[in-house]
# Entry
Amino acid sequence: MALIGQRRLDRLYPYTLVAPILLLLTVVILVPILHAGYTSFFRYTIGEPMEFIGLRNYRVMLTDSGFWSSVWRTLVFTASSLLLQYLVGLGLALLLAKGFRFQRLWLALLVSPAAISSVVAAVIWRYMLGYDGVVNYALTLFGVEPVRWLTDPFFAFVTVVVVMVWRFYPEIMLILYASRISMPQEIFDAAEVDGATPWQTFRSLTFPLLIPATLVAMSFRLIFTFREFALPWLLTRGGPTGATNFLSIHMYRQAFNYWHSGYGSAIAWAIMLLTLVLSITYLRLMYTHMFREEG
Amino acid sequence: MAHSPRTRQRRSPLAYIGLAVGVFWAVFPIYFIVSSAFMTPAKMFSWPPTFVFSPTLTNFVNLWERWPGFFSGMENSLIITVGSVVLAIALSVPAAYAFSRFRGRFLSLGAFWTIVVRMFPPIIITIPLYPALFVTGMFDQHITLVLLYVTFFVSLMTWIMKASIDATPVEIEEAAMLDGCGRMRILVWVVLPLIGPGVLAASVFLVNFAWNEYLFAHLFAGSASRTAPVVISEMMGGVTGAEWGSTFAASTLQLIPVLLFVWIFQKALLRGLNL
# Structure
C-alpha cells in the first residue's frame, strides 16, 4: 500500500482499520435492535402486514402475570446460580493456587466443563438425572428417596441452576486463579509469620486483593446468566408448568412458537433494559462497596 | 506467568480431598457419557449403574447408519468454526492495531462502541434477523453463522489483541518502516508474528464458542448448514429408548475435539483471561 507520505490518507489509515468491525457490529447488532424497537409498536406476524398499535404490546406485557413471574424467576435463577458459580469457582481457584503435583493436569480437568456445548451438557445431565439415573442411584445408597429432577417444578429449577454452575464455574475459577497466582507470595508469608489464621488471611488479604478480578468475572457472568437461553431450553424447555420459563425462553416462545413478532420484540426490549439496569446496579454496588472498604 | 506449584506451602489432607471432589464434579459427567457411548443399551440403563463393561462400537455404527445428518453436521461445524476464526483474526488484528497505536476522538468512540455491543443479548436480534435473512437469501448459509459468531466475538478478540500489541515495542515497526516496509506489510509480517500468543488465546475462546453455539444455529441453519449441536438436539428431542445410544455416540464425537483443544491450549486460555 502506497499510503506513506500522503498525509490526508495517513490520518484516515487507523479508521480504515477499524471500519470493518464497526460496520459489522452496527449492521448485525445495532440495526436489528433498533428494528426490534420499531416492530414492538406493531401487531406483527412474519409474512403478514404490520398493524400499528402504539404501546399496546407493552401494556399487555406489563399486565401479563406470566411476564412478571418470568421476570421474578429469572432474577432468582440469576442470583442463585451466580452465587453458586462464584463460590465453586472461588473455592477451586484458591485450592488450586496452593499448588499440587501435576498442577496443569488438575487445571485442565477442572476447566473441562467449559468446553462442553449446552446441547451435550443437556444430554449428559438429562441422562444422569433421569428417574433411573446414576444420581438417584447414588442417593438411594444414602437412603434418600429418588428425586424427579426434571419433572418436579421445584427440582427442575434446582437442576437448571446446578447445571449452569457446572458448565460456567470454570470461567470464574480461571479468572480468580490467574489473579491469585499473580499476587506476590511475600505478603502471604508475612501474614503467616504474624500468626494469621487461614480465615483471617482470606478475609483481610486474599479476598480484598481478588476484588478487581471478582468485579470483572461477575459483571460478565451476571450479563450472560441473565440472558441464558440454550441450557435451560435444552434441559427443560421452560417447564414443567413454567417453573424454568425464564425471560429468554418466554421471548423465544412468543416470537418463534406463536409468531407474535411484535410482542416478542417488546419482551426483547424489556430484556435489554433489565440487563442495563442490572449491570448498572451491580457496578454501583461493587464500587460503593470497594470505596467503603478503602475508607 | 507463574504456573509453578508453591512447594513451600504445606498442604493438608483436606486439600487433597477437596481437589478430588472438585475433579470428580468437573469430570465425572463427561467421563460418564463418553463411557456410556461404548456400552450396549442394556448396560446404559442398568440399575445399579455399570462401570466395568466390555466396550462396544455398536452405538457409533448405529449413528453412522441412522444419522448421516450428524456427520454432515460435524462437517458444517468445522467449516463454520474455521471460517469464524479466520475472519475474526482478519478483522480484529487491524482494529486492535489501530486502537493500540493511534489516538483520536472517533477511535475512542469506536472502542467504546465495541464494549457496549457486548452487553446486548444475542437473543434480541433473532426476531428481526429471521425475516431479514430470508429476504436477503442468507438463510441456511454457512457465511451467515460465520458473520454472527464473528460479530459477537470480535470485541473480545480485539481487546485481547490490543493488549498484546500494547506490550510490543513500537520501535520494531519504526525500524521496519525506515527499511521501506509498507503499512499493510508491517501489520502482516511484523505485528502479527509478535502477537501470536494473543491471537491464539483469543482463538481458543472463539473456537469453543463457534463449535458449541446453539441458538443462532438452531434458528438460522436449515438442512444445508445445520451444525452438530443442532443435530444432537434433534436426536435428543425425538428420543425413544433405543436412540440414547446414538445420541451418546454423537455427543462424544462432538465434545472430544473441543475438549482436547481447550486442554492443549489451557495456558493460552489463562493468558487471555489474565489481560
